[in-house]
Fold these 3 entries.
Entry 1:
Amino acid sequence: MSNSELSTQDWTLADLPIGVSARVVALDANRHTSLAGHGIRPGVIVEVENDAPFGGPRIVNLGFARLAIARAVALTIHVRLAPADAADGSR
């Protein structure tokens, strides 16, 4: 798969590779309010920093914040890879 194909592919936050920045494009309607309260909403850039061991939460950077997001919740957050120059953008 080429880089241009990867950049247009939609992912869930649960599947996003570590160290890759992505823009949130959609949230599960049932979790929208609680996620927005933590700053996760369509348009923001997130980056998976790491995974907790034994299937634990994903550690996500969101601007200057660091969040632990359960994998079940991460499956409900849809993202699209962000261009390299957008990494410091809308957070």
Entry 2:
Amino acid sequence: MKQKLIGVVSLILIVAGCAAPPKKPEGIAFFPPAPELPRIQYLTYLTSEKDLGESQSTFDRFVVGKRKDMRLDKPYGTAFYKNKLYVCDTNRTVMVFDFEKKTMTQLPGAQGPGKLLQPLNITVDSEGNKYVTDPVRGQVVIFDKTDSYVNAVGLPGAWKPTGVAVYGDRLYVTDMKNALVKVFDKKTGASLKEFGRQGPATEMLAFPTNLAFDSEGYLYVSDAGRFQVVKFDRDGHFMAAIGKIGANPAHFARPRGLTFDRANRMYVVDAALNNVQVFNNKAQLLLYFGGGGTKPGDLYLPAQVAVDHDNIEFFRKYAAPDFEIEFLLAVTSQFEKKLVNIYGVGKQKGKTYPSDEVLQKDLREKLEKMMKEQTPEKMEDVQKVN
């Protein structure tokens, strides 16, 4: 009996020794790079459940076996809610990273009447309701705070919903098929209005993909056909167009996801330039981060960006010792190994940072110099991508 007990204990110790080692740091990547003062640090990436750390106990693995590792395939939209990150895997369903439980699961309500065919974008309202656009299903599918299916909005076949945002009691959705923004009653799903094809051609949408509201209640729509971000008021009146086609910073080649932080800075993903550009509340470029490749901080066909203030502690271990994180950014890449890239926005301890106004002025001077050195080949490359 004693020998059997020793054997069981030994076996458990062997199993424990076979546990997956903790994820190794990739290396430090700051934006802007030295000698500039860092404002954004690349922290880590999430592609599978194991990237969250070990959640299954040694004894549990010994008794029931090792749980199959869940992985993302081709993510697009993403949104934080409390201690979870929701990711639209366009080849599967909505995947849920739980930072508290260190698990990755499929959205429970996305089956039966809530089944998703190609989830593209997701937003979460203040009550915890999730709104998922599915252009193949042709609807916005709604799930409640427990992730259970509630309802679906829109007539399949009549439109192609892509981006989604909530403001008050209204649901705003980009319709790529008809080049419109459609507005619905959030609770009943009733169609209220649509806009984007009225007025002069300079105010019309061409190929709207994503949208987001700023802190003042203005709606911003990324338009891949215009190579711009277009600003509207909540009733659909055209306000301004930001950017133009080009490969330089403050230009767009293939604008996709966008969001705003609490300081009303706008973050715009560009899938062709493989970066995220950051603008102040006057639509002036402050900085940009990312870049095509596989180095720490690089992106590969990025799609969407989300802001989070609730899960800093989970990712703080990846930050440089002298870098203070103020909030997080999650940026999805559709290909390669690093599919959800996590960045920390903050400041280096003990350093005095210039204001956004000074930062924008310095960057503008650098961009003017860059523009003078611009070659025609770069513009041709951008046009080929599109």
Entry 3:
Amino acid sequence: MTRISTFSFYQNSQSMMMDRQSALLATQTQISSGKRINSPSDDPVGAAVSNSTRAALAQFDQIKSNQDRATYLLNLGESTLGQMVNVTQQVKQQLIAAGNGTYSNADRASLATSLQGMLSQLVGLANSSDGSGGYLFAGSSETTPPFSQSGNTVTYNGDDTAQQLEVSSNHLQQVKQPGDDLFLKVRPGNGTFTTSGAAGNTGSATIDPGTVSDPTLVTGSAYTISFSVSGGATTYQVVRASDNSVVSSGNYAAPTSITFDGEKVNISGTPANGDSFQVAPAAYQSIFDTVNSAIQLLQKPVVTPADQAQLQTALSGVNASADQMLNHLTLKQAQYGSALNELDGYQSINDDRTLQYQSRLSSVEDLDVAQAASQLSQNQTTYQAAIQSYALISKLSLFNYLG
């Protein structure tokens, strides 16, 4: 028995039927997944665009995660510094109260005890956790609290590393500030120089923290203001330490303002012969040392008028240093707020880009359901026709014509 159709005809029919089946399955897969591209062969160019778009979206997702972490850390840092500002304001209140002339040694000692509690609060806040097993203000150190306290002495154990996170393409946001920059680098006094009385002063003269009258004339040198009393007249002279030269001199009558090399101080009270005051450049001082110096000052008994004068001079100086401490912490807190505002902008940009790339991915991958449904119906029809045609052709032989 010989078949009418040739082997080639059978092959072509089978191939056509399998093509129709593949087209039907592909359309069914598209409808099931909701995607136009389910394998690279569906659309090689579209698949390449899809892969690059997904890679970009993965990067945006990582940046979003970094932004969320940065927001958390910056908010935590700003809040912690806000609490430290509140404690510093309480320190200021205690120092103002200590200037009350009616306070006894016991009253000042009580204020010193309160300041010790505030010092411990400041150390505790400076050792705040970052919520992930590390510390907010330790630099790169994650296992050891950045500050340790022994009595009223506080030591920094961290480093100066500023931790950063990538919050936008090619932009790193500082999310952790090291404790040395935040709490150790404060200029005491008026921020430019400090004033103090010599330990051996026996008169009742006092000096204020001073001001800068002309920044362009400030030399950065230390100075000594000394007094001489002779025949009922009091004179002073100001000697610059860097070259041992007299930069100002004159008769003293309380109160007196003395200006030299762009610096101005006010002196009141009655100095004794040989009394002196020191004016020195304001070197860095930690906020903890500022509070510690206030504690030591208030613990020291006042017995003589000279002691009282020393107390008033030292109190005015430590008050000025506390102002610098407060201004410094407030500035650092504001920097956290500024960083959060900047981060908001990067978050908006990242959200916009994510939406754009999601739209691009959707336009490349997503299926037109109505069109796919029409295509499915067409593919089903052609597939059924191919099956029926092949079935009829496969039965053809000479026996169909004999009978």
